[in-house]
Amino acid sequence: MFRLPEAMERVWLMRARGMREIEIARELGVSRQAVNKALRDARVKLFEAFFGLAEVFSWEIARVNAEKGFMVARGRCLGRSVRVYAFYIPGKGLRAFFEGDFPDYVLRHAVELGIIDEPDREKLINALES
Length: 130
Description:
Layout: H1 6-16, H2 21-28, H3 32-57, E1 60-65, E2 70-77, E3 80-89, E4 93-98, H4 104-112, H5 121-129
Antiparallel strand pairs: 1-2, 2-3, 3-4
Helix pairs in contact: 1-3, 2-3
């Protein structure tokens, strides 16, 4: 299972929640350059993970947002075309869901990262698709 290294995940999550690099550096007691490098490396690893997942399952990628940790793609399931939404969930790794069938923890995660303002399935789909 793909997961970012713990320290990198912490930096990525703080940035995804809206903190600035200098605030993250101050909070963690590291340099701003170290934060910048961790974020750059996290984005690369997340892009690679999302593109790798799409390649393995032959999904067509519509959108990838490594800063917020999600991908929107189109795939085939039971002979029909379906929308696939994949998320990087801290502590859990990559998770993919078909046709917006999101569990509550994904909705809470999307609120926490500011993707949506309340845990609502339709709002999340609209935010991911826009």
